[in-house]
Specification:
189 residues; two-stranded antiparallel sheet; globular; Rossmann fold; HGPRTase-like; hypoxanthine phosphoribosyltransferase activity; purine salvage; alpha/beta; single chain; glycosyltransferase
């Protein structure tokens, strides 16, 4: 189960950013090259475990796009991308997000009250982006049926529980100076 993903995570190079051990992986960083078989493995697994009775697959620009797009192609469900710049379309919703390493503004377009969506993200660590996104979607009246993160690091996912959302994290990891350690795989509980 998710053997390509687990193997690729274990082989991820680690760099230091200050005191932070940062793993470099195709799903979270786009480097090295993104293996289409890896993306296929991930999207196949998501389609099996997620509530796919939705109107739209939603992801945040940029690194959630490869997996969310593969899932959209596999299921025929449209894909909506939350962007980092405004388009000034009618109904555009602006939200501020803050993570452990950045702050910014995101823009949601094309969703309306009553839409049922699944969120697909590459990594959840602090939970800042997903927390702001889910709050904004709930304010609009969009039903968040599922939140999927390919990789989980830390306990930021716990913040989503406060909003009544239980994210599904495919692979939970720890990152140390010596490398990535697989802590859990969704479905092994």
């Amino acid at each position: 189960m998710l053997e390509r993903l687990k193997d690729s995570l274990i082989r991820s190079p680690i760099i230091k950013r200050g005191e932070y051990n940062y793993f470099i992986h195709p799903i979270s960083d786009g480097v090295p090259s993104i293996d289409p078989h890896l993306v296929e493995e991930i999207s196949d697994y998501i389609s099996e475990i997620a509530d796919m009775n939705v109107d739209t697959i939603l992801t945040v620009e940029a690194m959630g796009i490869p997996v969310a797009n593969a899932l959209s192609l596999k299921t025929g469900i449209p894909l909506t991308i939350v962007r980092k710049r405004p388009y000034f379309l009618e109904g555009e919703v602006e939200l501020s997000q803050s993570t452990g390493y950045s702050k910014g503004v995101l823009y949601i377009n094309g969703l309306k009250k009553g839409d049922r969506i699944i969120i697909v993200d590459d990594v959840i660590s602090t939970g800042g982006t997903l927390l702001a996104l889910v709050r904004a979607l709930q304010t609009i009246g969009v039903e968040v049926m599922d939140v999927i993160s390919v990789i989980g690091r830390g306990d930021g996912y716990l913040k989503l529980r406060e909003l009544g959302v239980e994210p599904k994290i495919l692979v939970t990891i720890d990152v140390g100076e010596k490398g990535v350690e697989i802590k859990d795989v969704f479905g092994n509980q």
